[in-house]
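Next comes one such specimen:
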Amino acid sequence: MLDGISIAGYRSFGRSPVRIADLDRVNVFIGPNNCGKSNILRAVKIFSDASKARRTDQERSLDPSLDYPVGGDCREMSFGVQVKRAGQLDGCHQIFAKGFGRAWANLPELSDSYWVSYSVPVNGKIEPAAWSVADLAQYLGRMLSQQDMIRASNTLLREQSATHDARAKGLAALMHSVVQPHYDAYLVDAFRRIVDSGENLLAGAGLIGELRRLQSPDLSNYQLGKIRFNKINGFLQDVLAEPDARLEIPAALDQILVTLNGKVLPLESLGTGIHELIILAAAVTLVDDAVFCLEEPEIHLHPALQKKFMWYIRNQTANQYIISTHSNAFFDLEGVSLYSCSILEGRTICAAASSANEKHAVLQDLGYRPSDLPTSS
């Protein structure tokens, strides 16, 4: 899971890192078209792949002709993570809070959380970004006395002789290397369709076979498969307001059927919205303890169904969610963190939208106006 992320040098993100702090389990990024929301999702996925050094045709790192910012000389993508006290990486935070001892109180910018960034190459493994290590070293060197620096260096680096600057650089490098931000990320893009085969399973390709395996699981996965299949069926029942509704996958694996009021119907006969919901619900139920990047889950969905889906992912799954949307249906939902995205001087900026005024500004960016509301005559 991710406590916070920063992005630089990727598509609409310029050279200066954009920090998106204090992520929750469900995080919604909202804003107008072409403001960089989808780039956030893709950056999270790229860093996940790069940190595990996976390379396939479908899971590549960067395309130099496409993925670097337009109109600049930046040719290095960097991805940062927030290391929070009492967060997902709390163990790393505690290592250094203890190692610095009383000197930690002299580092106010690090007391609740600190940031480390990594360069994401076109090929190969990620490495701590040189500028990120240098910035942290400069901060440590400026804020710590010589005595405190020696004490922290001796405790954490076991170094007996070095200059003040060298100790600062060594500590900064260690604070980057100790953090291991490995996580599994899945991207479900906006083009979703259930078909019988394909590479993008979580956007609908090959989903029929996966649902069949949950419906009739192997003995080794029997209990977990049944639990997951029952969750999806429970969601279907809630969406249709029909307690007897149930998915059925025939042996031929050529379609998804729904039993409803004694009838057996193909899923597509229930409408595009239900079709979309089943793709999304199945995707987020197939995997646990991952980061799901969902692009525009509101497509074809009535606002009431959007809210039901949000309830499902919060209460029936064990994943973290990063969602891009144009919908206002996710406003004021419990347990959902809202972030506003926009373009400033040709680059994406992003900020938390928690107050009433900030949410009102987001609605204005989406084109909603008080005059759009009906008035009584």
